[in-house]
Specification:
- By secondary structure, the protein is mostly helical.
- It contains four helices and two strands; from the N terminus they run αααββα.
- The protein has a domain at 19-84: Muramoyl-pentapeptide Carboxypeptidase, domain 1 (Orthogonal Bundle).
- The longest helix is centred in the first third of the chain and has 13 residues, at 19-31.
- The mean pLDDT is 84.
């Protein structure tokens, strides 16, 4: 079962970031199609694609578009509610089990 809340601290461009907050946010955004993994991979460092993904997610879900995520705030709550509940047995990606409870959509089509 997905953890309902995960942020320890506010996540934004002007805030010091907790590495686990960054990784969890990127993975959850990616599982919903809001974070495209850069060539250098998913890191524990905040990056522009992550903040752009947060803003797109906020816009698409009728939230205030400010690029911030606060612990138990509206953006984290919405993202957590939509987060997948399965982990791909092949690549480890989080997913919703639409194609298979054991494989994500990328590994399913391979």
């Amino acid at each position: 079962m997905a953890t309902r809340y995960w942020l320890k601290k506010t996540l934004g461009t002007s805030y010091p970031a907790d590495p686990s907050d960054v990784l969890n946010t990127k993975r959850r955004l990616q599982s919903q199609g809001y974070y495209d993994e850069p060539e250098y991979g998913i890191t524990e460092y905040p990056d522009t694609p992550m903040f752009e993904g947060i803003k797109r997610f906020q816009k698409d879900n009728g939230l205030r578009v400010d690029g911030l995520m606060r612990p138990k705030g509206p953006t984290e709550t919405q993202l957590a509610a939509r987060s997948p509940r399965y982990t791909c047995s092949r690549c480890g990606a989080l997913h919703g089990g639409v194609f298979s409870p054991s494989l994500c959509h990328r590994c399913w089509v391979k």
